[in-house]
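Would you be willing to look carefully at the protein I have copied below?

:::
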Amino acid sequence: MTRQDEATDIRDAIQAGRTTLGIELGSTNIKAALIGPDHDVLASGSHAWENELADGLWTYSLDAVHAGLQGAYAALVADVEQRYGVRPTTYGALGVSAMMHGYLAFDADDELLVPFRTWRNTNTGTAAAELSELFGYNIPLRWSIAHLYQAILDDEPHVPQIASFTTLAGYVHRVLTGRHVLGVGDASGMFPVDPATRDYDQRLLQQFRHLVAAKRPGLHVEGLLPEVLVAGADAGHLTPEGAALLDPSGELEPGVVLCPPEGDAGTGMVATDAVAPRTGNISAGTSIFAMVVLEKPLTSVHHELDLVTTPAGDLVAMVHCNNGASELDAWAGVFSEFAAALGHPSAADDVFGALFTAALDGEADGGGLLAYNYLAGEPITGLEEGRPLVVRTPDSRLTLANMMRTQIYGAFGTLALGMKVLHGEGVAIDTMFAHGGMFRTAGVAQRFLAAAVDAPVAVAQTASEGGAWGIAVLAAFTRAAAEQPGLTLDGYLTDRVFADAAVDVAQPDAGDVAGFAAYLDRYSAGLAVERAATEAL
């Protein structure tokens, strides 16, 4: 097939609505990805945004959500038109994903009661601790139920008015379809899910009802939570109002089927073909987290590990770190400014490539340097706030190579502490699949991550597309499942999506493993310095 013929086929698929659209709202970027019938990315669009600190809590306004959706969608349509000379008006399916957890509470008229409280907030310590003890199940600070219970404990005036609460993905899905639903993976970060029923745990719902009965009699949390749907379910259709919100130009037609809205953890699993037991994935962005699909439940409760599910409802152990690649981005920005000051302005990708490549020449343990990427609090290490730090002893070797290796190690430091707990549970991992912008420079972050988790790390060509591509694939699966009852998500990914995917696998290097272990010992000891910095600065 000639390139012209291929472009004609793509144009025909776009005009006939045989493409699938995925939109993911990340921490700093809202991205839209359009995929064809073969799941290849045909076009993309993005919109940058940032959270804001309001009254001591991290939030995004709903106006910013709406504007960001429109911006990302408009950029996608413009990309389609530039590439193929047509503008899409409909799709075979559509999906929305976003940052998991957090708290969006609405009254009976669907009016937001308090500003959206994101996963990044750590003000829920009392609630999370009480719920974890009551349930015998780790409830992290960022979970939606912790936010609700903390609001109850604090006697916040909005609590009696709550008619529903949800996550960011659940909110966007509702404004597009009118349905108060959530994919099981995202739902499992609101309230514990029973993997046997793939729905909220009924025993724990009852315990919660009894817990709040004295303060809030009649509050039945099961009536406030979204309905849980597994991957492949029909989660509603794009309404005229939803179409107008996404595309104010009026070109987008209503009626498109939507898949269940999912969290970024679920789309990361899909984007890396890591939904089967003994596989896992690591998503590296503003936050960084690892997901490992379990063969059986864990024997103990660990505050370092969340228990969530795949989009199909299988149990997953999650190591979630609030801090990821943002500090790396900041240092890359400094070096970009330096290059420009020397008269050699460089593209961001070139700067990252040079810095990451330099890290390969660093000493295996980072030369005695330490880096903490803590821009925010980090529950795994017990820190309520963060202070980015570079720390070294007088006899350390400060070189560009050691500095950059240490910065990459620092991005994986807290994650490695959580993974050690998982290894202590005897959880076997055949392969960890990684995705995110950190892995665009081949053979660097991937190699160091293999050392950090002491397991093979695979990166596919789709890795840099991330969650927008993952939710687009989930939307395509919804359409396929309707045509083929009994089709499983694992089978669909293995046989149709990744059958011919190019995957690069990095095995752990013994020298790197030993070097990272030495670094991690120093990292653990140095947490006292990080803690002192949060108290002093």
In short: The radius of gyration is 23 Å. The chain has 16 helices and 22 strands.
